[in-house]
Predict the structure.
Amino acid sequence: MNRERLYKDEDFMLEAIKLAKKGLGFTNPNPMVGAVIVKNGHIIGRGYHKACGGLHAEREAIKDCKIKGNEKDLKGATIYVTLEPCCHYGKQPPCTMAIIEVGITRVVVGALDPNPKVCGKGIKILEEAGIKVDGPILNEACLEINDIFFHYMRYKKPLVTLKWAQTLDGKIACYTGESKWITGDEARQKVHMDRHKNMAILVGIGTLLKDDPMLNCRNETLEKVRHPLRIVLDSNLRTPFDSNFVKTATSYKSLIMTVSKDKDRIESYKKFGVDVVSLEADYEGRVNLVDAINYLGEKGIDSLIIEGGGEINYKALESRIVDKIQVYIAPKIFGGKDAITAVSGLGIASPKDAFKVGNLKVSRLGEDLLLEGDMEYS
């Protein structure tokens, strides 16, 4: 591939990536995918996967072509798609079939699809039909937008992000317990954008009793939001029936994970619209977090944010269920030996045993900083 063509291919793929991001929060557990169709150096159709169960990006772009009166130009055109076209029947027919039927002669892919039902098979079908396939192009960028999808395809478990907001001295609340607000508006908007992106959010019973949170998505920059499944770890079923969590369960999907077998109390929660699942206990008699994550994976939950307190944060790290870390740092100092720290629990005995985070990235949100990284387990 000559250099001039490569640059043009990258430009068109960047446009496809931009389109793919429009599906953020609505496609799970499907990937975000964007597509542009090009003829004689001009884009004649655009499309993206808008929602799980809806048309895939390739078919959306073909439909866009036809709506604009460019149907005849499809023959001999090139389609740029951020993910390898699917070749199997799901909620939609194969995109490879649509590409072949309209006479597109070149396909440029951004990344291969890790789904075993596709994974190179889509490309093979296209090539056998005489279509030239190039790529991957801008592979890392195309992989990055679908980190959740790729993780779930590989492990069949949700990608777990552990998130907290803290002061410069590592406090998540004052010694009085007050914590609203540590960070500013921009940071809080980012938090709600991530709630929109992820399929589930989890807190412990301690956080629920202390803060009585709604755990929904409130982002003013989005015209439409998707609220995550709200989960409370409540080993002994202490969640109050007059809590926001229970009172709003008919509006937002809600789940209590417990080790209790109290049938009467479980039935009472269900009458309010709260689902309850009883899981095995860990060595402390609490919900086993590994079992909890496995359960969510089996239910098709591909992503989870943990927004708990210091105890839950430590248990999550100790259980090695955390994949990514998000730490919002405000330019404030609370002090106080009794002020709550971000990660409490027993802690580690020696620096050499510390939980390690790699691929650290720092960004600025107003006055606050956001540190993001990947957990590295030995």
Q: What stands out?
A: The chain has a mean pLDDT of 92. Residues 194 and 305 are 8 Å apart (CA to CA). The first strand starts at residue 34 and ends at 39. The longest helix spans residues 3-20.
